Amino acid sequence: MMLDNKEEKKEQNAVHLLPWVTAIAMFIQSLDGTILNTSLPSIAGDMGYSPTEMHSVIVTYTLTLAMFIPLSGWLADKFGTRTMFMIAVLLFIMGSLFCALSTDLKSFNLARVLQAVGASMMVPVARLAILYQYPKSELLKTMNFITVFGLLGMVAGPSLGGFLSDNLSWHWIFLVNIPIGLIGISMAYKIMPNFKHAVGRFDFRGLMYFSLALISITLVLELIGDERTHMIVILSLLFLSGLLSLFYYIHYKRTEKPIIDLHLLNIRTLKIGLVGSLITRLGIGGLPLLLPLMLQTSFGYSASVSGLLLLPSALSNVAVKPFMVSIIKFFGYRTVLISNTILLGVILIILGFVTKETPIGYYILLMIFYGTFTSIQMSAMNTITLSDLDQDTASGGNTMLVIMQQLSVSFGVSVSSLALSLFQSGIFDLNTDKAFKYTFITLAVFTILSSYTFSKLSKTDGEGYM
Questions:
Q1: Residues of the chain with pLDDT > 70: what percent?
Q2: What digits encode the pLDDT tens for the residues 240-287?
Q3: Burial letters for 243-270: b for 16+ Cβ neighbours within 10 Å, e otherwise?
Q4: Biggest alpha carbon–alpha carbon distance for the chain
Q5: CA distance 157 to 180
Q6: In degrees to the nearest 10, what's the CA dihedral of 252, 253, 255, 261?
Q7: Closest CA to 438 of 356, 366, 353
Q8: What is the pLDDT of residues 50-60, one digit of tens each?
Q9: Of 212, 257, 446, 452, which residue is most buried, by most CB within 10 angstroms?
C-alpha cells in the first residue's frame, strides 16, 4: 500500500476525522435507499403510475449497486481512495439532481442508475480507507461509530421522506442529497488520504459474467410475482444465471487476479459473515418498504405519520451504540448474533399481528426494540465478517461484503414483494390485512434461520477486534 507525496499530515488528521467522512457516506447512501419508500405513492400519483409500478425504481437502484461495487476496490487501489471517493460522491449528487428533474418512470430509472453508480463506490471506498488506516484493535469502535450513521439514515429516511412529500414535494427527497454530498467532497479533499495499492489488469470478462448472473437472478425474483410473466421466461433466466455463475467459476480458476476472489471464502469468519448477512437481510431488508406500505394502503395512515412511526427505531439505534463494544465483549460475537437474529424474527412476527386499531404507543415500543436489535445486528455482522482480513485481503473482502449487503437488500425487497403478491393472488386469495400478516411471518422465518449460520462461529472468533 502507498500514499501519495505530501500525504503524511493528511494521514495524521485521518486518525481522528476519517470516520466522519465515512459516516457521511454511510448516512447519505442509507438515507437515499430508504427515503424513497414512503414517497413512492406520491411520486407514482404525480407521474401517473400505480404505486406497484414504481417498485422497479428500488430494484434498479440496488441492482446497479451490486453490479458496480466490484469496480470500487480495484479503482480505489489503482487511482487512490480520496480521488475515487470524490468522483463517486459527485456522480451521486448529479444522479440525485436528475431524479428531482424526472418526469416519467424511464427518466427516473435512468437517473437512479447514475445515482447508484456513484453510491456503489462511495461507501466501499470510504470503508476501505478505514481498513487501511486503523489497526484491528480499533476497528470495532470505529466501525461501530460509522454504523450509527448508516442505521440512522436507514430508519430516518422514511420519516423524512413522508414529511417532505406531505409538506413540500417529493422532489426534495433527492435535493437534500446535494448539500450533504458537497460537504462530503469538501471533507474528503481535506482529510482523506489517497491510499493506493498495487493492482493487476482489470478483469473485465469476470465483471461481465458476475454482473449478468446477478441481473438474471434478480429479474427472476422480480418477474416470478408477476402473473403476466410466462414460466418459460423465469426458468430461462434461472438457467442463464446458473450458466453465467459456472462461466465465472471457470474463469476465476484460470485468472490470476479475478474481480471477485472466491479464494477469500476460505477465510471462515468472512464466509460465515457473508452467508449470515444475506439470510438475515432477506428477512429485515424488506421492512422499510413493507411497513410504510402496510400503514398507508391497509391502515390509512398518511405518509408523514407512517414515516414518523419509524423514528423511534432511529433513536434507539443511536442510543444503544455507546454500549455496543461492551455488549460484544461480554457475550462474544457468537452469542450476540445467534440471540439477536431470533429476537429480530420475533419482532417481525409481532408486526404481522398489528391491526388498524393497534395503539400508536404499541408501534413505538416495537420500533424501539427493532432499532436496538438492528443496531446490534449490523455492527456485529459487519465487524465479524472483516475480522480476519489483512492488508492483502482487505480490499477483496470489503468488496465482497458490500456486494452481499446490497444484493441482499435487493433480494429482501424482491422477496417481501413476492410474498405479498403471492398471498394476495389467486393461490391464497387473502385480503390485504392477512396478506401483510403472513408476509411478515415469512420474513421472520428467514431471519430466525440465519441464527443457525452464526452458530458456526467459535466462541473466540472476533477477539482481535475487541
A1: 86
A2: 999 999 999 999 888 888 888 888 888 888 899 888 888 888 788 777
A3: ebbebbeebbeebeebbbbeebeebebb
A4: 67
A5: 14
A6: 50
A7: 353
A8: 666 676 777 77
A9: 446
Return the residue matching grid coordinates 441492482. 63
Cell of 379: 455492527
**Each residue of 361-401: pLDDT tens digit?**
888 888 889 888 888 888 888 888 887 777 777 777 877 88
Take residue 211 and report the three cell numbers written for it.
454482473
Exposure string of 50-71, with b = 16+ CB inside 10 Å and e = fewer, is eebebbbbbbbbbbbbbbbbbb
Long-range contacts of 94-97 (CB under 8 A, 24+ apart): 94/118, 96/32, 96/174, 96/175, 96/177, 96/178, 96/181, 97/174, 97/175, 97/178
Residue 344's pLDDT is 92
- Residue 324's contacts (CB-CB under 8 Å, 6 or more residues apart) are 144, 375, 376, 379
For residue 113, CA distances in Å to 34, 66, 67, 92, 96 come to 16, 11, 11, 10, 10
Q: What is the amino acid identity at position 195?
A: F
Q: Rounded distance, CA 298 to CA 351, Å? A: 13
What mean pLDDT do residues 125-153 have? 76
Question: Does residue 34 have a pLDDT over 80?
Answer: no
Distance from C-alpha of 370 to C-alpha of 315, rounded to nearest angstrom: 11
Contact 142, 19 (CB under 8 A): yes
